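4.2 Preliminary Data

To establish feasibility before requesting continued support, the project team ran the inverse folding procedure on a target of 85 residues. The structure was first converted into the token representation described in Section 3, and no sequence information of any kind was made available to the design step. The complete token record follows.
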């Protein structure tokens, strides 16, 4: 199996986040007052899993620094300054 690039990991993380947000929205629509729908909880779990995925896999390929707070793909690592391919 081919190893994913940082850009591909960010894409996977974004897709997981969007799916989670969609499930949260759908679950919120289907929920009754003071009784959350199971889809809402599933959406929260999927959204949190995207954050965990980003914490584990979205890292600098040179120094291994986590880019959890980085919103866009940087050209250079914020920590070591090496270019990202």
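Position-by-position output of the design step:
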């Amino acid at each position: 199996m081919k190893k994913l690039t940082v850009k591909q990991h960010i894409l996977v993380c974004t897709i997981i986040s969007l799916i989670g947000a969609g499930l949260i929205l759908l679950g919120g629509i289907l929920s009754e007052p003071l009784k959350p729908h199971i889809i809402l909880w599933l959406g929260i779990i999927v959204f949190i899993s995207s954050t965990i995925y980003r914490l584990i896999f979205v890292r600098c390929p040179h120094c291994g620094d986590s880019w959890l707070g980085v919103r866009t793909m940087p050209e250079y690592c914020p920590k070591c300054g090496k270019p990202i391919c």
